[in-house]
Write a structure and sequence with these properties.
Chain B: Belongs to the binding-protein-dependent transport system permease family. The complex is a heterodimer of chains A (about 300) and B (about 300). Chain A is built from 10 helices and 10 strands. By secondary structure, chain A is α/β, with parallel strands linked by helices. The two termini of chain A are about 30 Å apart. Chain B is mostly helical and about 300 residues long. Helices cover about 75% and strands about 0% of the residues of chain B. Classes of the chains: A alpha/beta (about 300), B mainly alpha (about 300).
């Protein structure tokens, strides 16, 4: 249940989509790919524009030409996202078979090139291995290689590092950032980790209960969050130089997006709540600096 | 691999030894007198006694069993009391028909089971799914002779597409194989459906779609390869089950397989033949399982034989 989720990715930009579990981040990503099972999912209003085409107006066949070709996607669980019964090489090669007319040898060359691109050594041997023979970090690199096989213009990364340990997380994110610089693609990075956002993203979109509540370039957002929810998220990050003590948390739970109260969905948990918040949803509005937020009583 | 095979073969020999022992003891306990059977009703007590001595039936159980085993390792499965021929050639002569019916039945089972199971899984919750589930339930629960006679009536008597019974040409094979296939297909379609439904929920299926694979490719390449893994063990079991003879189907269609041989032998208390077919069935059950275990790693690279 998404409502008024609007944001733009510029060529070569990394946009972070943040919010707590269940706020609709992954649903947004899956909608871009049009991978939500339908029924029950449907789009009542709105559009998803990509390079001037409305993805929602494409038929299934044209959409398949987009997936894995112009738009690549990687997922949260590298351990289960690769097919256990096919070799890594076969699975990367499949993306090329589906979307290009390259011959067998050219495809093999390209696979080796991709393995090198994502930093996997001994590529020739690795291509012949099965997913269970690789570590989580390597599997995520394979997923990236697969998603990048056809040089997509947009990479949707749905919590690509959540399941990996911290050092591997940093490697994968550095790799994504480096690939963005080299290939000039845009990345939609879905995460709940604000540290990751601060380090790797150009823009941030904060979601709450299926709605965008604030969006801004990274620096202004971290320096001067306007929506109380964003402010609460930022306050709950531990600081290395700060005083020790109990970390602040945001009390309460996210309302079920399917059963939203009439006003602002954050009203019940908001320290700045006004009577108006409970009856009327604030629109997403902002200045020319690209900083927009949906709040009647923003943090100053 | 060699060590694995060696261990499995030792296991197999032990299992078969156990089977011969249990069958032998059970048949020994039967209240039947083979010597009297062979001699005939009018024979004198002296004749019966001499036959008993000749066959070693007067020896204690353990001596009889060791004699049987001794003959067995030399390839001698004994002689039929009734047919006056060796058991080995008797079983051997029935083997081609049984193997043929087994192959036909397994092909039918797989075609029916996989086809219906995949259809049901892909159309989960829709009318096609319900239809397949109801049909498979009928297939699982219908008795062999009912399905057999029904097919016979429709396709052999009414439509006259196939011969009524017997053995020899491909046309003879169709109806008995189809009967077994319809019944087994019920099981296979249920297994395939549940396994396929489970696989279609996996993350790697989402990956395949995100890669731009079409629905057909997703189902028949990405999902099917994973979904058939549990079926391999089932095929292994079926090899054993069909080798012990499809008794009812063979009777309905007059198919000269091991099933009919078994049936006759039991009716006539032809102990050496019963021993022979039991042992043959056991051999094929063990072989079927071994075959399934050897094939599994080819389909699923995560399985290693150790």
């Amino acid at each position: 249940m998404l409502d008024g989720v609007g944001f733009t990715l510029d060529v070569g930009a990394v946009v972070g989509l943040v919010g707590e579990s269940g706020c609709g981040k992954s649903v947004t990503a899956m909608s871009v790919m049009r991978l939500l099972p339908s029924p029950p999912s449907r789009v009542d209003r709105g559009g998803i524009r990509f390079d001037g085409t409305d993805l929602l107006s494409l038929d299934e066949h044209a959409m398949r030409d987009m997936r894995g070709n112009r738009i690549g996607m990687i997922f949260q669980e590298p351990m289960t996202s690769l097919n256990p019964t096919f070799t890594v090489g076969w699975q990367i090669d499949e993306a090329l078979r589906l979307h290009t007319n390259l011959g067998r040898n050219e495809r093999h060359e390209r696979c080796l090139e991709l393995m090198k691109l994502v930093g996997i050594g001994a590529a020739e041997r690795r291509l012949k291995q099965y997913p269970h023979e690789l570590s989580g970090g390597l599997r995520q690199r394979v997923m990236i290689a697969m998603a990048l096989a056809c040089e997509p213009r947009l990479l949707v990364a749905d919590e690509p590092t959540t399941a990996l340990d911290v050092t591997i997380q940093a490697q994968i994110l550095a790799l994504l950032s480096d690939l963005r610089d080299r290939l000039g693609m845009a990345i939609l990075l879905i995460t709940h980790d604000l540290g990751v956002v601060a380090e790797y993203c150009d823009h941030v979109v904060v979601m709450y209960a299926g709605r965008v509540v604030e969006k801004a370039p990274v620096r202004p957002l971290f320096a001067n969050p306007r929506h109380p929810y964003t402010a609460g998220l930022l306050a709950s990050i531990p600081k290395l130089d700060g005083e020790r003590g109990v970390l602040p948390t945001i009390p309460g739970m996210v309302p079920n997006p399917g059963n939203r109260p009439p006003g602002c969905p954050f009203a019940d948990r908001c320290p700045n709540v006004l009577p108006r918040c409970r009856v009327e949803m604030p629109p997403l509005a902002g200045g020319a600096d690209g900083h927009a937020f949906a709040c009647w009583n923003p943090v100053s | 691999m060699a060590a694995y095979l060696a261990r499995r073969i030792v296991q197999a020999v032990l299992i078969l030894l156990g089977v011969t022992f249990v069958t032998f003891v059970l048949l020994y306990l039967l209240p039947a007198d083979p010597a009297r059977q062979i001699a005939g009703r009018s024979a004198t007590a002296a004749t019966v006694q001499s036959i008993r001595q000749q066959l070693g039936l007067d020896l204690p159980l353990w001596q009889q069993y060791l004699r049987y085993l001794g003959n067995l390792v030399q390839g001698d499965m004994g002689r039929s009391y009734i047919q006056r021929t060796g058991v080995a050639p008797l079983v051997w002569s029935r083997l081609p028909a049984t193997l043929l019916l087994m192959a036909g039945a397994i092909v039918c089972e797989l075609v029916i089971g996989l086809g219906a199971g995949i259809l049901a899984a892909v159309r989960r919750g829709k009318p096609a799914d319900t239809t397949v589930m109801v049909a498979s339930f009928l297939g699982v629960s219908a008795p062999q002779f009912v399905v057999g006679i029904l097919l016979l009536y429709v396709f052999a008597v009414r439509l006259q597409w196939f011969p009524i019974g017997g053995y020899g040409t491909f046309a003879h094979l169709v109806l008995p194989a189809l009967t077994l296939g319809i019944l087994g297909g019920g099981w296979y379609s249920r297994m395939t459906r549940s396994s396929m439904v489970d696989v279609l929920r996996q993350d790697y299926i989402r990956t395949a779609r995100a890669k731009g694979a079409g629905e057909r490719r997703v189902v028949y390449i990405h999902a099917l390869r994973n979904a058939v893994l549990p079926l391999i063990a089932m095929i292994g079991l079926d090899i054993g089950i069909f080798m012990s003879g499809a008794v009812v189907v063979e009777s309905v269609f007059g198919w000269p397989g091991i099933g009919q041989l078994t049936w006759q032998a039991i009716q006539q208390v032809d102990i050496p033949v019963i021993m022979g077919v039991t042992l043959t069935a056991a051999v094929f059950i063990v072989l079927g399982n071994l075959l399934a275990d050897l094939i599994a790693p080819l389909a699923d690279p995560r399985i290693k034989l150790r």
